[in-house]
Amino acid sequence: MTTRVLLDTDLAMGAPGSDIDDGFALALALAEPDLSLELVTTVNGNTDVVTATRLTGELLDRLGREVEVTRGSDMPLVPAEAVRGTPALSSHDWNGGTPHAAVRLVERVMGEPGELTVVAIGPLTNVALALALEPKVATAVREIVVMGGVFLGGTGVGVMPGEFNFWVDPDAAAVVLDSGAPLRLVGLDVTRRVRLERADAARLRASGKNFATFAADRTDEWIDHLERTTPGDDWDRGSCALHDPLAVAVVTHPGLVTWRPARVAVERHGSLTRGVAVTDLLGTDHPPEPNCSIAVDVDAESFREYFLERIGSLP
After folding, report:
1. CA distances from 200 to 117, 210, 220, 244, 265 (A)
2. How confident is the model at residue 235 (pLDDT cuts 50, 70, 90)?
C-alpha cells in the first residue's frame, strides 16, 4: 500500500557549508516505491526559506521529478508569549503573517481526511501554524512524523541545549505536541547513530549515476566541513549523520527503529534550556497520557543498506 506524504523541510543540500541530510530525505522519499510525495513545503532552519525553496526546486529538477513546492515561514513563531497551546494561537498572533505553506497544508489535509501523512524534518513552524489555522488538522491527518528532539539524553552543546529543529522554534514544537495529532518522533537518540561514511560516498560514486555522483560529492564536502569546524566531535570524524532520511524511512519501514509511547513537552522560555524535550516514559504508578511515540533504538546497519540501495536506484 502506498503512503501519501507531504514533506515539510528546511532543505539546504547544494549550498556550500550546509547540511545535506534534508536533501537526502527528499531523494529517499522519491526513491521509495511505497511512498507518494505529493507536496513539499519549505521553512526557515538550516538556511533561509527563500534559499530552501530554490534548492528544493533545483534538487527536484536534478532528479527529474515534478512535485508541488510551496514556500513557508521565514521566522519562528513570535512573540513566544502568544503560544500557550493550539487553541490560544491564531494566525494573527504571528508577526510574520500566514505563510502559504501553512494554508496549503490545511487545504490538503482537510481535503482528504485520514489519507495524508506529514513528514516534518525542519523546525515545526509551518505545521504549528496549520494547526492554528485549523485545529481539526490534528484529527484529519493520517500521522505526523517528526525529525526532532532528543529524549533519552542531551545535545552536549550548551549554546544549543535542544535538538536543532526544536531549538529553532520551541513554541512551534510545543503546539504540535499539544495538538492531539498522532505523532511519531525520530530524535537524536537514534539519528546520530545512522551514518554515511566516505566509503559509502565512494560506493555511490562508483555507480556512475548522475544523482549518486552528485550525492557522493556533496557528502565528501559536508564531511570535510564537519571535520574542519567540529574537530573535537567524535561523531563527525569521517562520517555524517542521516537525521532526516531516517524520519522518511520509518514511514514505510517502521521496524527500522524501536518505538516507545511517551509524554513529551518542550522547554520554550528557559534561557539555558531552550528547545529541550522533557520526556515522561510513563513508568510511574499514575503516568500521564502519552502524546506521541518516540524512537529509542535503531537498526543502523539495516537502515544504511536500505538507504544506499534506494539512493543508488535513482537515475
Report:
1. 30, 16, 10, 17, 37
2. low
| pLDDT for residue 78 | 59
For residue 312, which phi and psi values (nearest 5 degrees)?
-70, -15
What does the pLDDT look like over 238-297, one tens digit per residue?
Answer: 999 999 999 999 999 999 999 999 999 999 988 899 999 999 999 999 999 999 999 999
- What nine digits make up the cell of 258? 524501536
Nearest to 85 by CA among 165, 20, 180: 180
207, 312 contact by CB (below 8 A): yes
| Alpha-carbon gap, residue 278 to 295, rounded angstroms | 15
Q: What is the pLDDT of residue 243?
A: 98
Q: Which of 92, 100, 225, 243 is catalytic?
A: 243
Which DSSP string corresponds to 9-31?
Answer: E---TTSTT---HHHHHHHHHHH
Active site residue 243: yes
How many CB atoms neighbour CB 310 within 10 A? 20
* Interatomic CA distance for residues 32 and 247, integer angstroms: 13
Q: What angle do CA 298, 143, 307 make, to 5 degrees?
A: 35
142, 181 contact by CB (below 8 A): no
Residue of 67, 196, 44, 52 whose CA lies nearest to 125: 44
- % of residues, the chain, pLDDT over 70: 91
In 14-116, which ranges are continuous DSSP H helix? Answer: 21-31, 49-63, 100-111
